[in-house]
Amino acid sequence: MLLGRVVDSVWSTRKDETLTGMKFMIVRLIEDAEESGGRLLVAADPIGAGIGEKVLVVQGSAARLLPDLVNKPVDAAIAGIIDEGENQ
């Protein structure tokens, strides 16, 4: 799993028909405890993450194991939203 922060969304007017209704988000990965400057990736978002939220991202075959993404052509997906409390 990778740690990242949602920075924007992606609009696609044409895509594989199995992805109709799926939201895609741009996630900046948090690398080496540094939130700025991490690489960007596009991840399918079956759980409804919002811009600015810290998320867990899975890639490869793990992304296709999420219930809404089984047998769909995705390589990265948001698997969880991290709750940020006062102690984090």
In short:
It contains no helices and 5 strands.
Describe this structure in words.
The chain has a single domain, classed as Beta Barrel (OB fold (Dihydrolipoamide Acetyltransferase, E2P)). It has no helices and five strands. The chain has strands spanning 2-10, 24-29, 40-44, 54-59, 76-81.
Characterize the largest beta sheet: strand count, sense, and whether it forms a barrel.
5 strands, antiparallel
Q: Which range does the strand content fall in?
A: 35-45%
CATH class: Mainly Beta
CATH evolutionary superfamily: EutN/Ccml
Number of strands: 5
Could you say what the CATH topology is called?
Answer: OB fold (Dihydrolipoamide Acetyltransferase, E2P)
Low-confidence stretches: none
Describe the oligomeric state of these chains in a short phrase.
single chain
Question: How are helices and strands ordered from N to C?
Answer: EEEEE
Computed Rg: 13 Å
What does the overall shape look like?
globular
Global mean pLDDT? 89
| CATH architecture heading | Beta Barrel
Structural class by sheet pairing and helices: mainly beta
| Termini Cα gap | 19 Å
Number of helices: 0
Proportion of residues in helical segments: under 10%
Strand order in space, largest sheet:
3-2-1-4-5
